[in-house]
Amino acid sequence: MEELHWNGGAPLDPASIIVPLAGMATGIILGIGFFKTVRHVIDRKLSRGDDGELRGEIADLQARIEALEGEHGRVDELEDRLEFAERLLIRGRESGAAAGER
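^ that's the sequence the OP posted. Answer follows.
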């Protein structure tokens, strides 16, 4: 069986790929949810007539929300990378099982 290695020669550890990718995807998803909630709360305050400084904050938060929603493509890319890593792991296991049968 041929082991998969990093460029430096260290063995490829599945957790070193999957955990960071899952963490990044989770952070992006939670960030988008947080800003949508903040936007909803501010919109409710404005509908009650509490204009004040909130208009500027709303414009800022809406820009940030749009930027985060633009990160959706990045989440898709992370999902693709995760699937690729999973395929590598499965291929490594299958080739290991085939080598063990010989």
